[in-house]
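User: Here's a structure from my thesis project, written as structure tokens. My advisor, Dr. K., wants to see whether a designed sequence matches the one we expressed. Can you design one independently, without my sequence as a hint?
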């Protein structure tokens, strides 16, 4: 008996269907971080004890989707909310109360041209400082506050990252501002950065400009400007990070920072299965209404002990030494300690646990 063609045709049809759906493959990832610890914080006036959240990394819940459109083109979205897991409340990162996805809210395309996103995302400044901060914006001693960076996330924006060319990669951001404010350019941000990554070396530089309402005017704007650079190198036995940042806000409010400049130096080394991190940041500030320039020295040390690939324990201590014309707060991740009284020296000690999922 001759073999029938029907089984072969059926197999070919199934294979063709599978090939067709391969171009339309999609995935949805639910991910997050839960991070909490016990903190003893001295604001310079009194000592407080609390259950702090987001110490090593901000507690979050995120949704990431990708659809393969074929030809190397992919559609993607990313929604990410901040959570205070000590109370379950949303963290809005300066946005209006009730903002759900305050960490990130973007939709875009990825391909050989790079990555293009629309919505609320991290700015080029954030990428530059985050990658050269030894504490990665977490634990006492991070540069999240001491660097003086002004805009780390932006709304109503277009965000573009080029593909890597010989280790180089660029980032661009443009935002439409508040879109309802007058004058029209109020809040508009233009930003750019250039990164170089090769082997154990990472170098980046960024500049940002935002149109803010000029003090005392309802129709004129002035440019907030900030920029800087950073470097990180992995020597094998230890890693070294360094960078600087300067910012020039638009303000005339008494007690507000008018200009700032910061320089930081950090290092980490393995101790057993864990890692010890240290960092020092020197910050200079011009404060509106103060007779002289203020100076602050931020220092931090931490130990991170992994229990698994997803779970780790940590302990950290940090302090800020402010002079008579400075009142820089100590950032411990999501929480800020002090920062309200000139010449006060906030400090904090904390221990906690982090779990990634």
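Assistant: Designed independently from the structure alone:
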């Amino acid at each position: 008996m001759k073999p029938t063609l029907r089984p072969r045709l059926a197999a070919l049809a199934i294979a063709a269907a599978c090939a067709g759906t391969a171009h339309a493959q999609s995935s949805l990832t639910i991910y997050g971080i839960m991070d909490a610890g016990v903190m003893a914080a001295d604001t310079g006036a009194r000592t407080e004890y609390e259950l702090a959240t987001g110490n090593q990394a901000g507690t979050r819940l995120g949704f990431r989707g990708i659809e393969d459109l074929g030809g190397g083109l992919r559609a993607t979205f990313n929604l990410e909310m901040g959570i205070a897991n000590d109370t379950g409340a949303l963290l809005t990162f300066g946005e209006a109360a009730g903002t759900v996805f305050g960490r990130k809210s973007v939709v875009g395309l990825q391909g050989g041209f790079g990555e293009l996103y629309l919505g609320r995302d991290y700015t080029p400044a954030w990428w530059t400082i985050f990658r050269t901060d030894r504490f990665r914006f977490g634990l006492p001693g991070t540069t999240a506050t001491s660097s003086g960076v002004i805009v780390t996330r932006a709304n109503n924006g277009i965000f573009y990252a080029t593909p890597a060319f010989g280790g180089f990669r660029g980032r661009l951001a443009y935002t439409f501002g508040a879109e309802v404010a007058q004058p029209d350019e109020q809040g508009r941000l233009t930003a750019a950065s250039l990164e170089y990554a090769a082997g154990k070396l990472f170098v980046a530089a960024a500049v940002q400009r935002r149109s803010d309402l000029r003090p005392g005017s309802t129709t004129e704007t002035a440019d907030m400007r900030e920029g800087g650079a950073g470097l990180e190198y992995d020597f094998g036995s230890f890693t070294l990070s360094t960078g600087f940042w300067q910012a020039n806000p638009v303000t005339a409010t008494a007690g507000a920072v008018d200009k700032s400049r910061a320089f930081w130096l950090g290092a980490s080394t393995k101790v057993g299965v864990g890692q010890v991190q240290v960092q020092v940041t020197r910050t200079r500030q011009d404060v509106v209404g103060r007779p002289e320039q203020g100076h602050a020295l931020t220092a931090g040390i931490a130990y991170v002990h992994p229990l698994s690939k997803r779970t780790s324990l940590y302990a950290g201590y940090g302090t800020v030494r402010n002079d008579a014309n400075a009142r820089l707060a100590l950032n411990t991740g999501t929480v800020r300690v002090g920062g309200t009284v000139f010449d006060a020296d906030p400090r904090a000690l904390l221990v906690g646990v982090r779990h990634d999922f």
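When you compare it with your expressed construct, this may help: The two ends are 58 Å apart (CA to CA).
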